[in-house]
Amino acid sequence: MNVDLRIQLGIQGATHLLDPIWLDVASIGAAASWSGSYHVLAMGQHYDDYVVTGNLVSLPPIPGFPLAHPYERLAGKIRATGVTGNIGESVAAIFARRCLGCGIGDVAHVRSRRAFMRRKAPDYMMRLADVLPGPFAGILPAGFVALWPVWMPVESKARTTLASSRAARRDAMRQLVTYWSLLANSQPDTVGYGIIISFQYRGNKEVRASLMIPSDQALLIQRLQEDGDDVGQQNLNDCLYGC
Amino acid sequence: MIVFMAAKTDKFIIATFALWAGDFEYFEKLLREFSKPFNIPQIADAVETAEDVIRDTGARRLRQFRQKKGEFRKLVLEFAERGVEITDRPMVVEVTHMRGTIWRIGEREFVMQAYLKDLSWENDLFSRAAANAESKGNRDDVAPKASDLSGQSTEGDGYHSKGCAWVVFGNPFIQVHLTDLGLLEARGMWVERTLPEDAESITNAFVRVLGSLDAHSGEE
Prior knowledge:
heterodimer, A: alpha/beta, 7-stranded mixed beta sheet, 6 helices, elongated, B: alpha+beta, 2 domains, 6 strands
């Protein structure tokens, strides 16, 4: 199944459409079985049931045997949050490998089974300094000179609708703020940098990669040192591009 | 010549692969080498670098693993009282750059989950797997068609999977799938009327799959 792929500066900046990303049953199933926080054994089949990927259509036909999809079995069921959570977590790793060109050793899944901070650790740490800006080059602000941190935090979400995806990106940004507040004193150069990957898997399906970069890193560091991860939204808007 | 320098964090990443495969001893070994002691009460307070976040996650996973291991020991004792022996150690197979576990999941069904233990082999792994997947019809025992198994269209623009899939005919009949992240899952079905008389009948077939993806193997 090809899914529209958009990149975005911050979580409110303009978006730019890239070539689509292929999110098939096998890719999501396998990536999620590694990076998903929930123990789900047949992730690929769940994914196909939840989003209807067209996987069946790709199978070699057998005359007289119907292409019957079990989607309507969901009529009496609720989508399991663990499964959708796993789908969300897997998309970032796939994006990193295919779209950013990361090596296997550049993608570390670090989300813990239990949160070890008040808010959760990022889903991933990715070694991106050598591959950025990559597809994001066209959306960087004019004159912006990035000193990409070697390792950057990456959050990954899957939601059903446009509105819930937007809300998820905002939640993800707060999780990045937690990470930045941890390193505001010891590694201030890393503050303000991160990526949020969101996958809207119903309606107009879309993967969106939102690049977080600081517009005023010094001010953001100061705010984080003063307020920790409670720093207010307006303050964040003042310090980050596209927020 | 580019010389691959293994990063310290490789151990963490390989450990997550080992945990995925259920290769628990190797997982534990790697994380013991990479992470600080897992019994520090407030690990997050010690975070000073981005690498510390990864290291701390390793320590936390190790601690959670030890808890699970403790739970399993109690189960083993309960089974032992009934005269049944169970273990948390799967069949482990290994070639030069890869390790894998083989699990029995049904009377006749087996699954191997394999991964790179040397990340510098990444490009070779994918190129050898692609060659396996492309060699359809050229050999009797390898009849692949990646799109049949992974549903992938290779036509048109877009970001396609780096992985591939193929099948190995024989007994056991095996379907192999390599993912974007270099994780390999091979599902085998024993198709003879009677079950195998020894483990090698199963493991050898899976080791040949790994061998076809590794260096200096007889299965090229």
